[in-house]
TrEMBL record:
Coiled-coil ranges per UniProt: none
Record key words, sorted: Hydrolase
One matching Pfam family: Abhydrolase_1
Biological classification of the source: Bacteria, Bacillati, Actinomycetota, Actinomycetes, Pseudonocardiales
Annotated GO MF terms: hydrolase activity
Protein's name according to its UniProt entry: Alpha/beta fold hydrolase
InterPro entries: AB_hydrolase_1, AB_hydrolase_fold, AB_hydrolase_sf
Annotated AB hydrolase-1 domain residues: 26-259
Length: 272
């Protein structure tokens, strides 16, 4: 379960941790919420054999800095991603994004001029309306949930993260995904990112999906209960020359549920 992000990028709201693996054509992997770059661990390791792979934890997530008063919204993350690409000196990398990472990549491209060779979206947050009943409940009462006793909070997060997988997560993987959201910094950070998850940040760009001129691949876990595959059909229909690829036996955490098929899709995307 060792996963290291040794590099730092300083933003106005805190430090973002990132890593570069391998050498070759650049590819950047973006995670979603409430996860971290750890979800791409197996895919990143394989791609690093012949690609230069960049991974990062969004501000307020995983190993990046968590502190009170941070702006961890999609607006902020899109700005940070555009700045990171400039910091890395990447002019037109291939970008692979999951969940909220999809919205971050789309915002960086459509609003901040970030250029990609191509974009692959896995179960992205991209179309309104979004947010499960649980997500909306926590969002409306985040200050109350933040005060839960630590053991009850951990149990809630553990159950929530578990529900993103169709076949179920290995215990050690679940422990890793939950651990960053516990403790003095992690618990309030979990509710902070939910409280700031505002649909207006995808509303601002949804009408522009038809303007996307780069190759876009849309992939979806066939058993995704967080964002159903019908959303994938709608998104693919909204993006010119895009098609939907379903991953059998996978839920929302498609890269953990079906790493082999996901890696095959990513490698096909990288040579297309």
């Amino acid at each position: 379960m060792d996963w290291n992000l040794p590099e730092e990028f300083v933003t106005q709201d805190g430090v973002v941790r990132w890593a570069r693996l391998g050498a070759g054509r650049p590819v950047v992997l973006l995670h979603g919420t409430p996860f971290s770059s750890f979800v791409w661990r197996a895919v990143a390791a394989d791609l690093a054999a012949d690609h230069e792979v960049y991974v990062w934890d969004m501000l307020g997530y995983g190993r990046s800095e968590m502190k009170a008063g941070q702006d961890v919204s999609l607006r902020a993350q899109g700005n940070i991603f555009a700045d990171l690409l400039a910091e890395w000196g990447l002019a037109r990398p291939h970008v692979v994004a999951h969940d909220f990472g999809g919205a971050v990549a789309l915002r960086a491209h459509l609003l901040h001029g970030a250029e990609y060779a191509a974009l692959a979206l896995f179960d992205p947050v991209a179309l309104a309306p979004w947010g499960s009943p649980f997500f909306r409940l926590v969002q409306e009462h985040s200050a109350v949930f933040e005060q839960l006793p630590g053991n009850l909070h951990e149990a809630l997060v553990r159950e929530y993260v578990s529900s993103a997988s169709s076949p179920g997560l290995a215990p050690e993987v679940l422990d890793e995904l939950v651990s960053s959201w516990t403790g003095e910094a992690g618990q309030p950070a979990f509710y902070r990112q939910i409280a700031q998850a505002d649909q207006r940040y995808t509303d601002e760009i949804q009408h522009r999906y038809g303007d996307l001129a780069i190759p876009v691949t849309v992939c979806w876990g066939e058993d995704d209960e967080w964002i159903p595959p019908i959303r994938g059909e709608q998104l693919a229909a909204a993006i010119p020359r895009s098609a939907l690829h379903l991953v059998p036996g996978a839920g929302h955490l498609v890269q953990l549920d079906a790493p082999g098929p996901v890696l095959d899709l990513v490698r096909r995307f990288l040579v297309a």
